[in-house]
Amino acid sequence: MTRASSRRPGPPTRTERGIPEATVARLPVYLRALTALSDSGIATASSEDLATAAGVNSAKLRKDLSYLGSYGTRGVGYDVEYLRYQIAREIGVTQDWAVVIVGIGNLGHALANYSGFGTRGFRIVALLDADPNLVGERIGDMEVRDFAELEAIVKADRVSIGVITTPAGPAQEVCDRLVAAGVTSILNFAPVVLSVPDGVDIRKVDLSIELQILAYHEQRKSGEAALPQVPELPAMNGLTDLPSVGGGVGA
Amino acid sequence: MTRASSRRPGPPTRTERGIPEATVARLPVYLRALTALSDSGIATASSEDLATAAGVNSAKLRKDLSYLGSYGTRGVGYDVEYLRYQIAREIGVTQDWAVVIVGIGNLGHALANYSGFGTRGFRIVALLDADPNLVGERIGDMEVRDFAELEAIVKADRVSIGVITTPAGPAQEVCDRLVAAGVTSILNFAPVVLSVPDGVDIRKVDLSIELQILAYHEQRKSGEAALPQVPELPAMNGLTDLPSVGGGVGA
DNA sequence: CCGATTTTGTTCTCACGTTCACAAGCTCCT
DNA sequence: AGGAGCTTGTGAACGTGAGAACAAAATCGG
């Protein structure tokens, strides 16, 4: 989010060609909904239809689409095929992106086999691992190659996206190597916070965090119904037998 | 104009017991950072230290923690163990949550084997699949059971969290069954928008969407440097050879 | 015992995102 | 042809979140 060059106090601002991040995150959802409608043989859909299919509010959907341009027809709706193409073009999935997966454990395996992956816009060009026991193993129609080949592969296949499915330990080093090799977008499944230089985008998928967020809300639900005897914060005021902040010995 | 001082003029308000959603999403990150510090033998950490480890701004971290209570010591910092416990308690991972995984394909396999899963706060109590060929297969120390047993398992083990790793097709039906059985939190890996009744929380993990978001930004990067000849929206005005909105055969 | 130093907790301001509400614009029917 | 009826695109209000800045509180040295 290094897009802070908009000092415009003015109203519209138009953001030149900048689409809000929240909107970008929803475009793929719209794209999927449109594809489903298209497969069902539906040629035209209103913002209400689309919003329902995408699981969002119709006003939000219309505003999101308005950032791309005026691709609808008032009184009618959106042409499914046409809008689908426009969104695909805006996202960039009309071209193919070369992807490498690093770390062929359970998750790497699963991703390598995931079909809906290469079908639309993304092409896995290599599966890499540093473990010599894994190198050479066949997965689908691909073969696991040595992580040392990374630089050559990135250069040869113009790889711009790297997926990290290693354990937490080696993740930062793998990340550094990817960046050094020229990869500028990284999808990280390892449970660590990776640091990357400016100009490199990174996104994180973290199962454990998602579960914990669910647990928080779940605890709320049970708590309201059954266990209202939570300590609550003011109770801390009197507590002196806690791990003795800062000293233990002194004070 | 309209200083928006409608209801509460704005004192503390304390929000009763409500923690902002954005903060809830970061608490697990802080928890992980604290665990790492704890494992390194560090007993006390300042907000600056913690923020660096968690990859956020220190002011944000302090504000986040302030929603939980005053667990720090001015001039000193936070006691790592104590704060870790408080956050864990707030999230709810001091107790164990029973989890079922439905759909034992590649991804389900990977999750079932994922160790960092059951280690902290979550216990996988069943792996379920409707495919008779899979039922009975052993994965780690568990055995795949028939999806028909869902209701009995949820009731017996007080399962509150369900993970859906089926293909898109059966996902909504699986979801409905989970909800009907009493599951109130769902983590969905299937590439569809699931609808659930009020009171049920749902979170989504979608590889394909993450990649598309990366592709969007990647296209931007290349575009700024090399391909500035994108059609751009006003070009559509003259286009009449597009899929003929609304016309065609029948409506 | 007091002042200097450190670091938290909180306030204030600004930017972003969501939702409402409605005018503009298109189609269809009379 | 002209008006009725829809549906889009957008302006404006509202709510949430981020970050800077500072006052309050705790330790430590003299």
UniProtKB/TrEMBL annotation, chains A, B:
Primary subcellular site in the record, as a coarse category: cytoplasm
Subcellular location: Cytoplasm
Molecular function in Gene Ontology: DNA binding; DNA-binding transcription factor activity
Keywords: Cytoplasm, DNA-binding, NAD, Repressor, Transcription, Transcription regulation
NCBIfam families, A to Z: PRK05472.1-3, PRK05472.2-1, PRK05472.2-2, PRK05472.2-3, PRK05472.2-4, PRK05472.2-5
Its job: Modulates transcription in response to changes in cellular NADH/NAD(+) redox state.
Protein's name according to its UniProt entry: Redox-sensing transcriptional repressor Rex
Organism: Kribbella antiqua
